[in-house]
Amino acid sequence: MKLYFCGSIRGGRADAARYRKMIEFLKHYGCVLTEHVGDAALTDRGGDGTSEEIWQRDTAWLRECDIVIAECSQPSLGVGYELAFAEALGKPVYVFYGRDDGRLSAMVAGDPQFFVYHYAGEEELLAKLKTVMEAAQRPGV
Fold first, then answer.
1. What do you get for the CA distance between the two ends of the chain, in Å?
2. CATH (domain of 127)
3. b/e string for 16-49 if b means 16 or more Cβ within 10 A?
4. Does position 98 have pLDDT exceeding 70, yes or no?
5. Where are the beta strands (DSSP E) in the chain?
6. How many CB atoms lie within 10 A of CB 15?
7. pTM for the whole thing?
8. pLDDT, tens only, 103-138
9. How many folded domains does the chain comprise?
10. Range of the domain at 82
11. I need a labelling partner for 14 at 20 to 30 A (CA). Which of 41, 53, 71, 122 fits?
């Protein structure tokens, strides 16, 4: 399974450690195309490449992936764009955000095509992520 993980880069790196844990967990279920999102060395200035090169690469990965997993506790224009792009492609989109944050965009929370999961703490996050990934691996799901 090819997984596209969304997490804030230029919108802020406060949750980078959380992204890293999620990505490591997701790697048990398939190839995470966007593993760099969890890189501790990645700053809010972004990675290598021009904006156009990043757009080309990331939209190609979105076309290629089987599933999109997004951690949306940190608001990010880029993540919002990725989610809308994935929706337009008909990709299954799973959104996670911490209950204490309470800032999930209404455009994401209210989208009937997205599966939104609230969590309180890492243990609950990983348990919900496991449930989603195990269901995604079953044929016909």
1. 13
2. 3.40.50.450
3. bebbbbbbebbeebbebbbbebbeeebeeeeeee
4. yes
5. 2-6, 31-32, 67-71, 93-98, 114-119
6. 22
7. 0.93
8. 799 999 999 999 999 999 999 999 999 999 999 988
9. 1
10. 2-137
11. 53
